[in-house]
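Session log. Operator J.P. requested a structure for one protein chain; no other inputs attached. Running the standard single-chain path with token output.
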Amino acid sequence: MSPSSRYLFMVARRQDRKSARRLDGESLIWWAGEGAARVLAHDGDALLMERATGEQSLVEMARNGRDDEASRIICAVASRLHAPRDCPPPRSLVPLTQWFAELEPAAARHGGILRVAAATARELLSEPRDVVVLHGDIHHGNILDFGPWGWLAIDPKHLIGERGFDFVNILRNPDAQAALAPGRFSRQATVVADAARLDRTRLLQWTLAFTGLSAAWILGDGDQPELDLAVAELAAAELGQG
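Structure written below.
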């Protein structure tokens, strides 16, 4: 294997118009290869990272009859990320209260399921549990096969908050067809809750809250959040709020 195929050079920076919505390399550096891609060197915003060279794909697993297995792998990686560390976390981590800032205004404008999501988010954020450094965007496409290093996460969002938040994206991925397949949502909620040792009801609440937030972001960009609204309705129905 040539050196160029083993390593990946990247620049971690704020990515879009929302100051709270960013990808940052500090979390990757802090995790030090334990559950996340290894940063071999860094200078300012520039990172030299190990490249994922394995041939397996969680997206393909989920699409080809191994959905439960893929979800359990993701949960195992998340648990490694959430494990206690000896060194203090980065000071610049974004709290979930800031991350969710756009939900309340969107709920006031659009109503409907967004109002339910906003009320759920308020409840969750007021009494957080198991606060950890979060990845913020854990899903099938952000957990890659690093060959001898196993499954590792990429592209964190530099957040801090309740551990359960990090599992919601499993339920709305790997794509709309899979996420909205009949019976899939309820089954994977159980699989994820068991694998991650979460309260299933609280996982559903975080899913409702986050899909509302994601819908608010998409609406703010002038697009239609069909997937997020559909998943929010599924979560609300499971919670008896549909």
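Operator note: Residues 61 and 222 are 33 Å apart (CA to CA).
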